[in-house]
From TrEMBL:
It comes from the Bacteria. This is DNA alkylation repair protein. CDD domains: AlkD_like. The lineage of its organism: Bacteria, Bacillati, Actinomycetota, Actinomycetes, Micrococcales. It comes from Georgenia yuyongxinii. Gene3D superfamilies: 1.25.10.90. InterPro entries: ARM-type_fold (IPR016024), DNA_alkylation (IPR014825). It holds the Pfam family DNA_alkylation.
Length: 227
């Protein structure tokens, strides 16, 4: 495909290119994590780099309901072009963990509606939607904690994380660790909650990776910051 053709590329052409990247071995690995695509993400990013930002094409790719196409869509979209309701609809359509993760981290976090959505999603009865709210809360805990009730967040985590569904539990645990890492005055309580609840204590962690078990995670990252 020539550079001149990039701006006029059709959804069908892009879908065909993405389909050629599908690898059954990658698909098998991804299936274990709830994702239904077999595309090498570095190669998908290379397509996105070539296509550059194309909002209309991004919307058309999203509408295909194909996971790999949606991931590409999130890489070439213009985050601030989506309104609040559209982002809410997209989150409920996301289906797979990777699409949800990229939608929240690459698009919603850059949106002027991020704070409104954080508050609405955190209180949503759907645990997948609520997990997105907690991901946005972790972002605020780390980057813009002013106005957040950190002791109140720890109260909720202490009361609800142990019995939460997997994706919501993971997001709440991330928030717990982020509070412990970023806010020394709450670190002792965050460590205590993690030790008592034992969430993700036995999570299989590859060599040279940090365990998601909050006490280990907090202690390791803080020690790195102190060196």
């Amino acid at each position: 495909m020539t550079q001149a053709a990039v701006t006029g590329v059709t959804v069908a052409e892009v879908m065909a290119e993405v389909a050629e990247l599908d690898d059954p071995r990658i698909r098998e690995v991804n299936a274990r994590h709830g994702d239904d695509h077999g595309v090498n993400l570095s190669k998908l990013r290379a397509i996105a780099t070539r296509l550059k930002t194309q909002q209309e094409l991004a919307r058309e790719l999203w509408a295909t309901d194909d996971t790999a196409a949606r991931l590409l869509s999130l890489l070439i979209c213009r985050p601030k072009a989506f309104d609040r309701d559209e982002l809410g609809t997209m989150l409920r359509q996301a289906r797979t963990p990777k699409v949800q993760d990229w939608l929240v981290n690459y698009v919603v976090k850059k949106s002027p509606h991020a704070e409104e959505l954080r508050l609405a999603w955190s209180a949503d009865p759907d645990p997948v939607v609520a997990s997105a709210g907690w991901t946005l809360t972790s972002e605020r805990v780390a980057k813009k904690p002013e106005g957040l009730d950190l002791p109140g967040l720890l109260d909720v985590i202490e009361a609800e994380m142990k019995g939460a569904p997997d994706r919501l539990q993971w997001a709440m645990n991330t928030c717990l660790a982020t509070i412990g890492i970023e806010h020394a005055e709450h670190r002792g309580r965050a460590l205590d909650i993690g030790e008592r609840l034992e969430v993700l204590k036995d999570y299989p962690t590859p060599p040279n990776c940090t365990s998601p078990f909050a006490p280990i995670w907090i202690t390791e990252i803080v020690s790195r910051k102190d060196t």
